[in-house]
Amino acid sequence: MKPLRSIILIATILIVALLSSAQNAPQQKIIIDTDIGDDIDDAFAVALALRSPELQILGISTAFGDVETRAKLVDRLLGEAGRPDIPVAAGAATHAPNTLSQRRYGEGSHFARASHPAAVDFILDQIRKNPGEITLVCIGPLINVGAMIDKDPQTFPKLKRVVIMGGSIDRGYGDPYGPPTPAEPEWNIENDPHAAQKLFASGVPVYVMPLDSTQLKLDEVKREFLFRQGTPLTDVLTILYHQWGQQTPTLYDPMTIAFVDDPALCPAQPINIVVDEKGMTKRGSGPPNAHVCLHSDPQAFFNFYLRRVAPK
Question: Which residues lie below 8 Å from residue 165, measured CB to CB, with a gap of 6+?
Fold first, then answer.
């Protein structure tokens, strides 16, 4: 029996040591660049980041269209969630053909900040302060990325990596459980293909979560479970969901945060990506310039997401 006790003791010590090591692991520094406010998946991505102990959120920047209203929306979300300490920056305003379905949430909030720093300057400054340490997570059109590369092409490559939701490699929009639909221009790439071209040519490690692996439907059962939790964060998601005004959200963007938390949730493979003038992301013949997740397990993703965002 003594050898058995010794084995159990050693195994226990190893397990405790591994758990302690995981808890003491340094947090990953991230900045989230988002077009929050029209589709609902951006808010779900920010919520997951706020519930990820692995992450140190250095800031959240907004891009595309009415960036100030988007920034005010982020102000309120962070305030309601108890994280008003996270900086919020606003990109340059651009024309956008869509409307902000969640505009009312950001208007008139007592959490709204008097002003927001310029996103490009803010992110570049954070890169200079933390060279080789920051993961930039882009879940909107890549306008700020293109502007950063143009403004300071020496500083931008000092990012640790860029993780984007964008592109359509083998599958376009459609029912993820039906026959594959042909690849097509995806929203985030289509709205600034030149910025995407610059990113893939920048030399920074790029990790791509395209339509192929991110059409994750938050069905009625999952929504009901999440919305009944009654926490400040889940209440925010409930309000924004109803302002969004549609039925079943597709959680494209949260896969980027889930990947940063646990890369096994969306295994990525090296691929050469070529972006054309229409925003198509095609396989090229050159050396790989990105790691792309073409397949994911929706059940594993939602098990992870709901455990994180719902109270423990």
Answer: 138, 139, 188, 209, 210, 214, 252, 253, 255, 256
Mean per-residue pLDDT, 184-203: 98
Q: Report which residue type is found at 238.
A: T
Give the total number of structural domains in the chain: 1
List the structure tokens of 258: 């889930």
CATH of the domain at 46: 3.90.245.10
At 26-66, the pLDDT tens digits run 899 999 999 999 999 999 999 999 999 999 999 999 999 99
How does pLDDT run across 209-237, given as a tens digit for each residue? 999 999 999 999 999 999 999 999 999 99
| Alpha-carbon dihedral sign for residues 140, 274, 190, 200 | positive
How many C-beta atoms lie closer than 10 Å to residue 230's C-beta? Answer: 9
Cα 281 to Cα 294: distance, rounded to the nearest angstrom: 13
Domain span at residue 101 reads 27-309
Instruction: Identify whether 3 is part of a domain.
Output: no
Residues 227 and 287: their CA atoms lie apart, in Å, by: 45
